[in-house]
Amino acid sequence: MEKKITGRKNTVLCIVSVIILCILMFPLFWIVVTSLKTEQEIFRIPPTIFPEVINIKSYAAQVETGDFNMFRSFGNSLLISVGATVIAVVLAVPASYGIAKYHFRGKKMMILGFLVTQMLPVSVLLTPMFILLKGMHVYNTPMAAILADATIGIPFSVLILKNYFASIPNDLEEAAYIDGCNRFTAFIRVIIPIAKSGVTVCTIFSFLYAWGDLAYGMTFIMDQQKRPMTAGIFNFMGQYGTKWSYLTAFAVVSIIPVALIFIFMQKYIISGMTNGAVKG
Questions:
Q1: What is the pLDDT of residues 84-137, one digit of tens each?
Q2: What crossing angle do the helices spanning 70-101 and 196-211 adopt, rounded to 10°?
């Protein structure tokens, strides 16, 4: 039964919620405001809350041709993120199903291995992955970043989807067998549609992991024209200073796809995360 909060308690909770929201949103607000200021106004003391003169040169610089181009970098990030997401989901879905539905020797160690990979810092993985990708002759290509970013999404997806598949009754599969399905067709036509919300969550987070990656894109891709959008932040950090208006404008543009994903996909994310927590 849901409890309905009314009266003074409701008013106090609303005020507290608004205050917390303002505190959490203030950094984003400050980034947007800073991107619209001139360099002189950014360093003014005391600082101005709103720009006195709207400066859009910082946004115009994002689409200029040269060493860094926003559209080209956006395309690189999209290619890397989609590629890493496809690999992560295609490999994680059957792997998590096998872990959830089958009992085999070393199962617990395999799950522990997925957990450990989530705990390791990126700096520890850079050297062995560099040697591996160099030996595969994919270094300095988008495929290097795609494979590296997929290693982030696969363990997360396996650990999330394992709970989904474990909570699906075996009777559904047996009913599919009676209707003429084999194990593969039952998995495709029955199991995956039931776990659709979990697959959606894993797809979204795998994409976001790859989209926000900086270390792999900077390490495994040397050509500026092939690097993802996150690597473009260093174009505004020079030896003699940082162009803060340009840098914050770049941050605003790069945040837009992530914000849109959370706005339009939040119901799938919330339902997917809560449904996956039913059974461990």
A1: 999 999 999 999 988 888 888 888 888 888 888 888 888 888 888 999 999 999
A2: 140
Beta pairing class for 237-238 and 241-242: antiparallel
The single residue listed with the structure tokens 């998995």 is: 187
pTM assigned to the model: 0.78
The radius of gyration computed from the CA coordinates of the chain, to the nearest angstrom, equals: 23
Q: Which own/partner contact pairs does 211-216 have at CB distance under 8 Å and 24+ positions apart?
A: 211/77, 211/81, 211/257, 211/258, 212/258, 213/80, 213/145, 213/148, 213/149, 213/152, 215/122, 215/123, 215/126, 216/122, 216/126, 216/129, 216/144, 216/145, 216/148, 216/149
Q: Which helix (H) or strand (E) holds 260?
A: helix 244-275
Which tokens hold the place of 106? 């070393």
Q: Are 115 and 159 in contact (CB under 8 A)?
A: yes
Q: Is the Cα dihedral 219, 90, 167, 200 positive or negative?
A: positive
pLDDT in tens, 235-262: 666 655 677 887 888 888 888 888 888 7
